[in-house]
Amino acid sequence: MNTAQFTPAGTMTAEDLGRIHLIGVGGVGMSGLARLFLTRGLPVSGSELREWPSLAGLRALGGTIHMSHEASNLDGVDTVVYSSAIPQDHLEMVEARRRGLRVLHRSEALAAAMTGRRTVAVAGTHGKTTTTSMVTMVLQQAGADPSFVIGGEISEVGSGAHHGTGEHFVVEADESDRSFLIYRPYVSIITNIEADHLNTYGDLANLEATFAEFARLTDPEGFIITCADDPGGRRLAETLRAEGRRVWTYGESADADLKLSGMASSAQGVRYLAEIEGRSLGEIRLPVPGRHMGLNSASAVLAAYLLGLPVVAAEAALGAFPGVRRRFERKGVADGVLVYDEYAYHPTSMTLALQTLREVAGEGRLIVVFQPYRLYRTRDLQAEIAAALGIADELVLLEVFGPGELRQPGEGSAALLSVVPLPADRKVFVEAWDDVPAEVARRARPGDVVVTMGAPPISLMGDQLLDALLARSGDAAAIGTGVDPDGAAATAG
Hints:
The chain is α/β, with parallel strands linked by helices. The protein folds into three domains: 3-111, NAD(P)-binding Rossmann-like Domain (Rossmann fold); 117-319, Mur-like, catalytic domain (UDP-N-acetylmuramoyl-L-alanine:D-glutamate ligase, 3-Layer(aba) Sandwich), CATH 3.40.1190.10; 329-488, Mur ligase, C-terminal domain (Protein-Tyrosine Phosphatase, Chain A, Alpha-Beta Complex). The chain has helices at residues 28-39, 54-60, 91-99, 106-114, 128-141, 198-201, 204-216, 231-242, 291-306, 311-319, 347-361, 375-380, 382-389, 413-419, 436-443, 462-472, 485-488, and strands spanning 20-23, 44-47, 64-66, 79-82, 102-105, 118-123, 147-154, 159-162, 168-172, 187-190, 223-227, 247-251, 258-266, 269-276, 279-286, 329-334, 337-342, 366-371, 394-397, 427-429, 449-454. The strands form three sheets. It has a ten-stranded mixed sheet with strand order 8-7-9-6-10-11-12-13-14-15, with helices on both faces. A six-stranded mixed sheet has the order 16-17-21-18-19-20, with helices on both faces.
């Protein structure tokens, strides 16, 4: 995506968009944007092919949802919004251009909604959704009533977007297609920088240069936050400071501005001591485990401090942080087996998530049901992904989810499975979606932890696993969900 062809933030408002239609409105990113516009009182319609869970909420807010893609869906529409998952030859895209309608990328429409607000933009290879959620809850706890759009749903709030009355707008800034270069933040948070989306960037050097370009878009009166423990974040901080920009860092490193010490993680959560400018901020506690969760929360603490918000508000918000759906989400327990869902698909985030789940499993085994996300990533990071999966005791592997990609000889999950460092009897490739629950039920024992992990469709598997586990225990309430994963995920994003 070449952002030069898009309009930067600040030149139009959401109200200028008129009646808004979103193609593929059921995906997490698009449904959040639709919710934002609806709570702002704007007329919204959308088109979908599957009944995503988010659609009922959009209808309740007054949105018009068309369960098909048709030219007539654009009748009366002023602005059509699409995501990078929608091809340029999509029926509704072609019709919108034929009619001369305003056609905007999701990032452009979101930028319009930010006009006149102080934007807090959260970017990074990992942790964006969780960190954006934490910053949002801290601002809410402080009484700031921010607007927000998050690439996931805060478990307690049950929503990934809201139009608030306050001056701040918190947004998850997506680097995958360079669209985050459209935003003009007051605060930029960059959690980490690692090789990913190399189909867009080519190499890590170009990716790091683009993150630096994003950071330079930050208001000179605002500030940039990076992680001192992350090599990419540290290099970025050094570059920007040499240019005279206002950069603050957090982490366990001795030279971090917000220094963390005594960090401890267990199945009950994570805690650490925080200090800044010689001042102790006391102990920060979260009810969710994982050192990476601690680091994410530290960026929210630092943002609150620099924005002049009460630190006690940050402590209270983080102490009650419920997690984010699809990020270490507990789905339930059936026949003594605990089932989680986790969005991780990059090897670093996979490793962190699986290490944390090991803490939860205790004496039990960890069984991973993994659906790789994108052929290029699975090919380019095959060794790293395989090493992460090697943390598991058992692996059930599905085929790569890569809509629009053409599989070349030797690519895909069969190649990945061959290099996962587990004995042959503890790893298996299951081609058919409907065969996965029975395979997991055959392998899992009471006391085990099962996690569904990876691409968007796998999030639909958790309930089916619970049903299969209940069925083997003789519970008559066990009923299969009958989900069609390929169709349901067609507009994920």
